Amino acid sequence: MNSQQTQAVYKQASDIRSIAEEMNRLSNGNLKNAADSVAAVWRGDAANVYLRHCEATRDLIRETTADLLNITGELEHLAQQWDIMNSGGLTAGQSVGQAIK
Question: What pLDDT does residue 92 have?
Fold first, then answer.
């Protein structure tokens, strides 16, 4: 993998991180505010069902955000490994993992 390809991986990781952060912001902002507004004026069983669905949706968004951030970390780690291998930054007997640390 050449330097241009490695930079493309870093860019993809950055894009995924931005998406995850935006999802988190929407979940903690817009969706929470909407649920809070409904809860303030709507009472009864249907309101409780709606609010449970809102919370379940927020949980799924949080899980997806965490998954995306894990993927980002893996992509960045792989790009670091490729950078090290391509730059010849390994010393004799050193593994890529040791060079990253």
Answer: 47
